[in-house]
Hints:
- By secondary structure, the protein is mainly α.
- It folds into two domains: about 1-80, Rna Polymerase Sigma Factor, Chain: A, CATH 1.10.1740; about 85-160, Winged helix-like DNA-binding domain superfamily/Winged helix DNA-binding domain (Arc Repressor Mutant, subunit A, Orthogonal Bundle), CATH 1.10.10.10.
- Helix content is about 75%, strand content about 0%.
- It has helices at about 5-25, 30-45, 55-75, 95-105, 110-120, 125-130, 135-155, 155-160.
- The N and C termini lie far apart (about 50 Å).
Amino acid sequence: MTTEEYNKCVDDYSDNLYRFILKNIRDQEKARDIVQDTFEKLWVKAEGVSYTKARSYLFSAAYHTMIDAIRKEKRMKPLEDVDHNRYSYEDSYRGLNEVLEQALNKLPEIQRSVLLLRDYEGYAYQEIGEITGLNESQVKVYIYRARLSMKKFIGSLEAVL
């Protein structure tokens, strides 16, 4: 990959990459750090990554960097710093987006990631498998379970509206 192709990758994919990571970890500073680390990894391996495969490489590297950051944070977080409101249900309603965000937050990490890659970013099952390191059938199962969980959490659309 040439320097111009690398710069084009930054221009083309940085926003989508940032949104994907931000949706998963919900912390703007950490999301920026992960995106920056991901582009650094691409720069280091630029000679081995073709421009046509750069998007897939970036999302795979970002996903794995995010998982590493989450695991590191889980090991280091004292119990008294846990946000108990994150795990409780609020009865107040402020909009459909909020309900969807609450439903997404209740999902396990892997289900949330594959669901966002499929429904939010528009990746095919095979591409999601390459990004997450899962096979295609595992991806389909996780997406199916995530959608069921969200449906169960939200209930009927009439109840939400």
